[in-house]
Amino acid sequence: MIQQQKYNTAYIIGISFISALGGYLFGFDFAVISGALPFLKTEFALNPWWEGFLTGSLALGCVAGCLIAGKIADARGRRPGLMLAALIFAVSSLGMAFSHSLAVFISMRFMAGMGVGMASMLSPLYIAEVSPAAVRGRNVAINQLTIVIGILVTNLVNYMLADKGADAWRWMFGLGAVPSLLFFAGVCWLPESPRWLITVGKTKEAGITLQKIGGVQFAAQTTSDIQLSLQGREKASFKAVFDKAVRPAVIVGITLAVFQQLCGINVVFNYTSTIFESVGASLDRQLLETVAIGVVNLVFTIVAMWQVDKLGRRPLMLAGSLGLTIIYLVLSLLLQNQASAGLLSIFVLAAIALYATSLAPVTWVLISEIFPNHIRGQASAVAIVALWLAYFVLVFTFPILSQVLGTYGPFYMYSGICLLGFLFVRARVKETKGQTLEEVVMH
Fold first, then answer.
1. Of the ranges 194-198, 236-240, 276-280, which is most confident?
2. Theoretical Cys-Cys bridge with 92: which of 111, 160, 223, 406, CB 3.0 to 4.6 Å?
3. End-to-end alpha-carbon separation of the chain, Å?
4. Where are the domains of the chain?
5. CATH class (in words) of the domain with range 9-190+232-442
6. Is the pLDDT of residue 393 over 90?
7. What whole-number distance in Å separates Cα of residue 95 and Cα of residue 111?
8. How many separate helices (H) and strands (E) can be counted in the chain?
9. What is the pLDDT of residue 85?
10. Is 60 exceeded by the pLDDT of residue 316?
11. Residues of 87-125 as b/e, b for ≥16 C-beta within 10 angstroms?
C-alpha cells in the first residue's frame, strides 16, 4: 500500500470533475421527466401503461449504452466512450424537444438512455482508476454530486418553465444540448486512464499521467501493482466476468445495483407529481416539491462525500437500507390516510436525505472498486445493466401498481425490499475504504 504522500489534488479533482460532467447529464435526463410528465400526459394522451413505458424507456436505452460502453472501455479506452456519450446526449436532447409523435419521443428518450448508460458506467470507472486509494471514495462520489446538481438545476428550470404554455416541455428537454457540448469539450482534454493504458501495454503513457497524479515514486509503485494484478490473466471477455474466481464479487455488484433501484426511491424522483397529486396538491406545489427534493438531495450528497472515506462504505449502506425500511412504512400510512402535503413532504425529504448519504453514492463507489483490473470494464457493465433493468421494472410498474393498489401500496413493497437489502449488505458486503484497487481484489 502507498504510504501517505502528497498528491496533485487540483489535477486529480479537475479530471474527476470533467469526467463527472457525464453525471450531470445523467441527472438532467433522469430528472427532466418529473417536470415534463404532466405536460406529456396531455400531449400524448398517456394511460398508466404508456406513462410507465415512456418514463422507463430511458432505462432500456441505458442497458444498450452500458453494453456498448463496456466493449469500448476495454477495447478502446475510457475516454472515447465518454466522448461518444456526450454527443449522444446532445442529439437526443434536441430530438426529444422536436418530437411530434409518441413513437419519436420514446425513440429519442431511448437514445438519451444510451448516453446515460454509457456515462453511468464510464464516469465512476474512470474516476476510480485515476484516484489514489485514500481519496477514491470521495472522488467517485463527485460523480454522484454532479448527478444531483443535474437533478436540482433541471428541477429549477422545469419549475421556471412550467407556466410558459403547453410547449414548455420542449424547452425542458432541448436545453440539455448545452451541457452536453460542454462535456464533450472537457473530455477532449482528459488523459486516458493509466490503468487501462497499462492493461494494453502502454506503460510509458500511463507513467506520465501517474507522475502528474502523485510523483515518480507513486507512478512506479502503482505501475508495479497493476502489472502484478494482471499477471497470468487472459484478455477480458464477457465469459471471464462469470469465472469462478470473480463470481462472488460479480454477484455482490449485481445485487447492490438491483437493490439501489428496487429500493424504490426513484419512484419518488420520477413520479413526484403523481405522489403529491394523490393527496390533492396543486401542479405548482407538485413542481415545488421536485425543487425541494433536488436541494435536499444535493446537501446530503455533499455530506456523503465527506463521510464515505471516513465512516466507510458498509456502515453507510446498512444505515441507509434499514432507515428506508422504516420511512417507507410511514409514507405508506400517510398516503393511505390522505395526510396533508406538508406532512408527506417531511418524510419524502427524509427518505431522499437518507438515500443521498448511503445507497446513492456508495453503490457506485463499490461497483467501481470491487472488480479485478482485467475485467473491470466488462464486470461494471454487467452490474450496471442489471441496475438499469431494475430501474425500468421500478418505474414501469409504479403507475400500474398505483392504479391497482393505490399510490400507497407499492411503498409497502419497497419497505420489504429495503429490509432484504439490509440483510444482504450485512452478510456479504466487505469494507473497501483506504485500500488500493489491487488490494480490494486480493482480499
1. 276-280
2. 111
3. 13
4. 9-190+232-442
5. mainly alpha
6. yes
7. 9
8. 19, 0
9. 93
10. yes
11. ebbbebbbbbbebeebeebbbbbbbbbbbbbbbbbbbbb
